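Anyone able to model this chain together with adenosine-5'-diphosphate?
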Amino acid sequence: MEFRKKTFLIVGFGISAKSACDFIMAKGGIVYFTKNTAFQASEVEEIRNLKCEYLDFEGQNKLILQGKADYLVVSPAVPLNSELCKLARANKVEIMSEVELGTMNTKATIVGITGTNGKTTATTLLDAIIRGDNKVSKAVGNIGVPITKYANILTQDDFAVMELSSFQLEETTSLKPHVACILNITPDHLDRHKTMENYIEAKSNIIKYQRSNDYFVCNLHDELICEIAKKTKGKVVYFSHLQKTSGAYIDGENICYNNDEFIVSVNSINLRGAHNLQNVLAVITMAKILGISNVAIAKTLQAFTGIEHRLKLVSVIDEVSYFNDSKATNPDSTVMAVNSFKEDLYLIMGGMDSDLDYSKLVKNFPKNLQRVFVVGENSEKIVKAIGKYGAVRVTRASTLREGVLLARYFAKSGDVVLFSPASKSFDKYKNFEQRGTHFVSIVESINGKRK
Ligand code: ADP
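re: yes, here you go
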C-alpha cells in the first residue's frame, strides 16, 4: 500500500485513531482528523503536536468532494452505512478500518479470535503460549492495543494475536487471518446489528477472505459455527470436549491433539468452568497449527490462572478460596460461574438495577450453592427472584465489605466464596474493573485477620 503523500481522513480521536495516525505518518502519509463532536482545546493541541490537521463536518465533506482524500480510516463506532461512508464511497475514497490498515501492512502472522464470549481469555492465553515458546507475539485489537502500534515492528517470524469484535469484523474488506477462530455465537449487540443474521454475518467475516493455506478452528459440537466453517477456503480443524477429533480434544484425564498426541492433563489447568475448557481447547488447537511446542503449551497452561475479574482466584484464606468474577455483568455469565465449582459455594451478587431478569439464573443455581449474599441497587429484585424460584438461603448486605465478611463467617475449609454480580457496576463504580479491584482489596484486607 502506498503511503507517501497520500491523504488519510481518520474518523475519531481515540486510541486506535491516534495509533493509526502515528503509523501513517511514519510512512510519509498526510493525516486529517474528523469526528462527529467538536474537538476540545486539549485535543486541538494534541493534533498540532502530531503535526496534522483536524476538520469539522463541512471541512471533511469538502476534502472528500474535492477529491483530496485518498483513504477514509473509520473506527468500529462508525457504521458502514453512515452518511460519511456513503459520501466517501460515492467519491471513490477507499474506506478502511484501523484493523485493516494494520493487518494489510504487517509481515507478522495474523491470528484472529472472535466470539460472543471468551475472546479476551483466548487471546491472552494464546499470546502467552506463543511468547512461552520464545517467539515474539503481541495481543492486539479489541483487547485494547491497536494493531498499528506494532504492525511496523513485527517481522515475518512474529505473531499478532488479534481479539476481534463483531463491530471490527463488520468493517473488514480484506482481513484474512492465517488462523481464525469463532469461539461461540449467542445473541448480543443486536442494537447495532439489528438481526441475529447480521451479527452472524459480521462474525463470519473473519473467514471471508481466507485462502487455502489458512486455517479455521471450530468447535465440533457447535452446529452454527460448523455451518459457518463450510464457507472458508482454508482448512477446518475441530476441537471437542467429547470425542477424538482433528484438533485438541479431551480423552479421559488428558487433553490430546489429533492422533493421540498428549498435550497436558486436564487437572493441571487452573481455569475454572466448562466454558474455559472450551477456550483452552480452541487455544491449544491454534497453538499447534502455529507450530508451538507441546512443552511451551503445557508450561504456560499450567501457570495461567486467568485474567483479572474473570473467575480469577484472588486468595485462599483459612482454606477458603475467594474468586473475583466482576466481569459477570449479566445473569448468563453468573450461571456459568456458579456452575464452575464442585465445592460448597457462597455467592456474592448484585449491582446496578437495569433491565435484567434473574429468574433463569436463580432456577439454575446448583445444589452446592449454600447461601447468596446480595448487595447493591437491585438487591430487592434479586431477593424477590430467589424467594419465587430459588431454594437457597439469601442474606442482604449493606456493602460489599459486609457481604465478604458474611461469606467469610459462613464458609468452611475447602469452600469457595464467589463474587459474580450478574449486574452492571454503575450503581457504585466507574466500571467492572474498579468494582473487581474493590472486591480484591476487601479480600486482601481480611487476609491474616481472625474470623
Ligand atoms: P470477551 O472478551 O469475549 O468479553 P472474556 O474472555 O472477557 O470474553 O470473558 C468474559 C465472560 O464470558 C467470562 O467471565 C465468562 O462468564 C464468559 N465466557 C468466557 N468464555 C466463554 C465461552 N467459551 N463460552 C461462553 N461464555 C464464556
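The pocket of adenosine-5'-diphosphate is lined by residues 115, 117-121, 183-184, 275, 278-279, 310-311, 325, 327-328, 333, 336 (CB under 6 Å).
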